[in-house]
């Protein structure tokens, strides 16, 4: 492994984009588009431009009024609580549809905090028979022969952003039509996303697969055509696998009995390092707290962020550039590239303060250090039992009166 290197982030954005390419020459994909520039200032601009009423009317359409807030929430440029409060304060209950979608993000995250690494495995036995074929090159490269699916994959590989409805269609096609292992597909998809959030991504794939839902999600051509304006269907010459009634699709897709068992996928642990014998205290800045307003940064200790190959080694170029945009606003944070353990030892660190995370790999990386985990405010100030977190509807039954005042 290369020795750790302390970075100096260019203030000019174009120079910064090229700088990231030099630091990470093997990172795949295209440059981060200007409309997706990272950082809290850009996050606030997008938040101020949200039209929650239009969102409620047409968010399911591919050309609908979506918010594009997901990367800024993922990396902590905005907190979920401040986003929820800002939208509710501006639009009131006319924003209920959008407020519920923000609650979904809180729900996924609470499940991850509660269940930990279990979200990487099947949370429940599937309700229909699943296939466990390997992910094909045709899917990886967007060459399935279906214009709709290939366009969605093209968005993923090109920009790292895919409309939420398209994510569901693509996942359903991969899991139920191609019978590909949902876990391999979820890993692949998350690895290319700009807004790659493990809880939202993996639990959504399980929701589609029926390993964290009461039934599988599938769709037909009529549904696809309606919400895409027939953009892909009009000139399509492929034999459409979705051109049937839901009853016909159900009989075609689910011919075998469902498994009685949930499949387990053990995580490969990071290498174990010896406990640090140093005494210095530092604030460890991880990739969920990238805002100069983060309260943990108020601590009077050095602040350190590390681009660690074991944590960020498979990230696409645009995600690395997004994070660097965020860090460029955080003037007092040291930014390093290298092994987290080596960097912290080099800085004589023995004790860390950081924001709590359910990410097991981050927690493993910090195991050699005495770490104080600062809690993150929940969207809902109420305890949620394991049973209530088994379904969003049960969560929402308790959360909605508290959040909406209804």
Key structural traits:
18 helices, globular, 7% strand, Serine Threonine Protein Phosphatase 5, Tetratricopeptide repeat, six-stranded mixed β-sheet, Rossmann fold, alpha/beta, 406 residues, DNA Cyclobutane Dipyrimidine Photolyase, subunit A, domain 3
Précis, in short:
The protein has 406 residues and is α/β, with parallel strands linked by helices.
Runs with pLDDT <50, length 5+?
Answer: none
Assign the CATH topology of the largest domain: Rossmann fold
- Dominant shape: globular
The biggest beta sheet, please?
A: 6 strands, mixed
Strand order of the largest sheet: 1-4-3-2-5-6
Please give the CATH architecture of the largest domain.
Answer: 3-Layer(aba) Sandwich
Rounded radius of gyration (Å) = 22 Å
Q: What fraction, in percent, of the residue positions are helical?
A: 40-55%
The chain-level structural class is alpha/beta
Please report which band the strand proportion falls in: under 5%, 5-15%, 15-25%, 25-35%, 35-45% or over 45%.
5-15%
User: How far from one another are the termini?
Assistant: 56 Å
Counting structural domains, the number is 3
